[in-house]
Amino acid sequence: MARPTGLIASKGIELLTWSTPNGYKASILLEELKEAYGLQYTSQGINIGQNIQKEPWFTAINPNGRIPAIVDHDHGDLAVFEGNAILSYLSRRYDTEKLFSFAADDDDYTRAESWIGWQHGGLGPMQGQANHFVRAAKEKIPYGMQRYVGETERLYGILDARLKDRDYVVGPGRGKYSIADIALLGWVNALRGTTISIEQFPSVKAWLERCWERPAVQKGFQVPSAPSSSALKPQVGEVAEKTQELKELVDKAKKQYGYVYSSP
């Protein structure tokens, strides 16, 4: 794939994204809208390892220099950035039958906003920091590892309790698949990066399996490429050995600082 240097579409939605938990929010919803309404979109892979998202043409679209971002060429070339803002915009404008969202006067609209805000301000940032201190940081700092892995566990405990008697996060009865679920999918699928096993949270695991059954979810996770791993698939070989090695470091850090799991 050629290195992107600017927008390439003149109509429809143009998605600028990469294979990250936040990036998958936009691609999964766009695939759902495509399947339900025939909404077409164009996508470009923005390799964040090459800092394409920092180039002037991209920061003209998203001043923060982050993916994902979309440009709606059918609506005055409106640029929308931040994954959760994209979910809100696309569902408000293109989910006309409220298949994946809720009417503004429905209390579940507010409930969905609350859970999406919880993901955006809590689960995503904490899990991202856990992954950074456990996997990416050259120096393995015990306090940082136990702090962020522990907070990620706490948040997953909240989500597990929410899903104990529900199929989806928001909606009447046992819930309705919606943007509240889509906001979480990429992050939950990447949970193993923190060394936390999804087996610790059986209701979350059942929810993720349920969501993965949707064809649009499977397709959305392919844009621009599939995730390197999934919380639902066992690791093998050197990858599994590395995760176990890191988990032992995290467990040692937890013991050092007296961490005891508690949620909420």
TrEMBL record:
Pfam families: GST_C, GST_N. GO terms for molecular function: transferase activity. PROSITE patterns: GST_CTER, GST_NTER. InterPro entries: Glutathione-S-Trfase_C-like, Glutathione-S-Trfase_C_sf, Glutathione_S-Trfase, Glutathione_S-Trfase_N, GST_C, Thioredoxin-like_sf. Residues 10-98 form the GST N-terminal domain. Residues 105-236 form the GST C-terminal domain. Belongs to the GST superfamily. PANTHER family: GLUTATHIONE S-TRANSFERASE II (PTHR44051:SF6), GLUTATHIONE S-TRANSFERASE-RELATED (PTHR44051). This is Glutathione S-transferase II.
